[in-house]
Design a protein that fits this description.
By secondary structure, this protein is an alpha/beta fold. The protein is built from twelve helices and 14 strands. The protein folds into two domains: about 160 residues, nicotinate phosphoribosyltransferase (Alpha-Beta Barrel); about 180 residues, TIM Barrel, CATH 3.20.20. Helix 5 links the parallel strand 6 and strand 7. The longest helix is centred in the middle third of the chain and has 25 residues. The relative contact order is 0.15.
Amino acid sequence: MKQLDSMVDIKDITISADRLMHSATHDEILKGHTTDIYFLRTLDILKDLELDSTEVVAEIFPRKPGVLAGIKEAINLLEGRGLEIWAVDEGETFETKETIMRIKGKYKDFAIFETTLLGMMASASGWATASRIVKEACGDKFFLCFGARHVHPAVAPVMERAAIIGGAGGVSCILAAKLSGIEPSGTVPHSAMLVAGDTLPVALTYDKISDPSHNRIILVDTFKDEVEEAIRIAKALKGKLYGVRLDTPSERGGVTSGLVKEMRAKLDLEGLSEVKIFVSGGLTPEKIKTLIEAGADAFGVGSFISAASPIDMTMDIKMVNGKAVAKRGRIPGLVENSKLKIVKSL
């Protein structure tokens, strides 16, 4: 099907009775199927007025500060449409109402993608910003994002890629890692221990089948006291245990500073000071700071990043046929930003 450019095109959209997923395909996004309908109505009006080919300059700005992500997808969406694009680099910080993207061209060539562009950057920037907050809390400590289970699988790679842009050292979602040019991170979940009935055989087999260079990190809170289990596993692996993961559920109070302090102290007393403590489970920046003070070495963060609110984005037309314009309440003309870079003529 061709790209949508008129209200009459909507009647040609049909949904197959055997469609498996509700998420939009790449082709549907590129053809404008995820836009708000009023942009098509606008194009019909402007066509009738013979104004749809009017040259405009539009600018996109955020409603609050954050870290920019989603720009690469936005640029790819506009590829081949005869436009001039300026954009701020992914990973850059921005302030409220700072211009993060500028588009120059015929209005008809990008009008229907306003909804899509804003959504791409709003969600990704929200996730990247949350990740940056976690990074600041962690300081020089490592953290990885494993929030894929909290979002729709269609956007899980987008979310975890944004987390890397924000500062995550790794991600568990396979596609997100591959999109970012890294390998996915992760060890073994509670399910392996529950099926096996004991943590020790899982740990020994994990060690046996893993590449020698792989860091062996074992969950130690499935059946026994966390400290007792950690010492048992560390001794059984004979120096090959890189770290233990604490993921104590909220039903038992979660991972506390006291538990981390006890774990660190007793591992050290057993001559296991090289074994690191990895913490996960409902972590926030505030809790991460207290756990670092207690002796935690690394973190797995999920819902704090995945549940981050999108950063609302707005697109305004600021020039029409070379004349500065703006709706009431806004200042006519371009809003300059030294961080804007010419992408290329697309």
